[in-house]
Write the structure tokens for this entry.
Amino acid sequence: MSRLREIDQRHLWRPYTSRDEHTSREFPNIVGGSGPWLFCDDGRRLLDATGSWWCNNLGYQHPRLVSAIQDQASTLLHCSYADAMHEQAVLLAGELVDCAPTGLTRVFYSDDGSTSVEVAVKIAFQYWQQAARPKKQRFVVLPNAYHGDTIGTMSLGGVDEFNAVFSPLHFASMRAPAPSNGDWEPTFSWIEKTLRQNGDEIAAVVVEPLVQGANQMQMYDAAYLARLRHATEANDVLLIFDEVFTGFGRTGKMWAANRGEVSPDLLCTSKGLTGGSLPFAATLATDRVYAGFDGDKTRALMHGHTFYGNPLGARAAREVLSIFRDEDIVQHIEPRAKRIAESFEKIGEISGVLCPRSLGMIGAVDVGRRGYNEMLGHKVSDVAIKHNLLLRPLGNTVYVVPPLNIPMVDLEKMLRIAHDAIDEVMKEHG
Ligand SMILES: *Cc1c(COP(=O)(O)O)cnc(C)c1O
């Protein structure tokens, strides 16, 4: 056993990993990367379809990102925003507002996706307390939502495998019913009805717009976003978009909100915000929401993180925005998205494969019954890794989320290996 593996086994507590899996599985030791490729210490090059937990939107080691971070490291690594300001955090705020859905004018920084949602929840709650509507305390959420792993965001979440054990600690969200046979109409009409009937006790509706990543890449139509916007406005309820996964081009537009041509009252972003290079996050709010905190000390948002506005993270995010501009990242998604869609349609024709779906730079299928503890998906990843493709199935859901700028040849290779691995497993076990 290598020295690193030995220490990993002795001292690491891996995320979402049982001791059995920790001790039995060979985890590749990554020593570098480039574009969609990861380099291992044993000389292998792995094509990464997981986007490093869905955050790697520009490929590994984008040279401009690397030098921007190096440059910033030599200037200012960190200084708290408590009693000071610093350039990168200031300039990023303006640049984020410029590219955000219209009306989002205020930026609150935090450290990761979970905290960006936690912040949005606290803002929405306190907003109504200070607006003399103290009964508006509840949050309406989608079925099987995932908004992070903190106690607050788990309270919004509905993926039992993550949450069930902690349920006594959660506040009670109002959860819409699951779509029936892929039809989301009942889910969204339930939300509309609930807002009409109980709007005076509801603070906000929180959704992952268009794609529920952790809910095994379930997708719904952009028209529902417009309906949500309409219903929340009509009933004086805030609308929160968790764009931690969908933001920064993943769905083929800069924001999933752009696809529905709507603007939420609060928007959460992380993952792609730094191109997946550094932990960093932001919660954006409208003037109206910010105005709810006007006044003296007693009305301030009492929330803040040590690394609020971290200069390295902010500098990385600014560089990501300028790479998006200079390299026309969003404009170049279309041909790639088309290939992902075609290819997953084709995978859907393999006997036993269900529900081929795609949106922007996301493609997914189910290789059997849904559920996190289903194992056929893992058989697919076991086959794929033999061909140097890294997949991380969600139970029986096999998906790819490549960098938005993946070279076409690498994309074709990724799609071909994924197809063949699924085909092989379905022939054997399907
Ligand atoms: C990943 C994710 C989160 C949590 O982000 P972390 O950085 O892991 O805390 C929240 N919401 C969505 C939609 C996500 O995909």
In short: The radius of gyration is 22 Å. Residues 408-429 form the longest helix (22 residues). The mean pLDDT is 97. The pocket of pyridoxal-5'-phosphate is lined by residues 54, 112-114, 117, 146-148, 208, 213, 242, 244-245, 270-271 (CB under 6 Å).
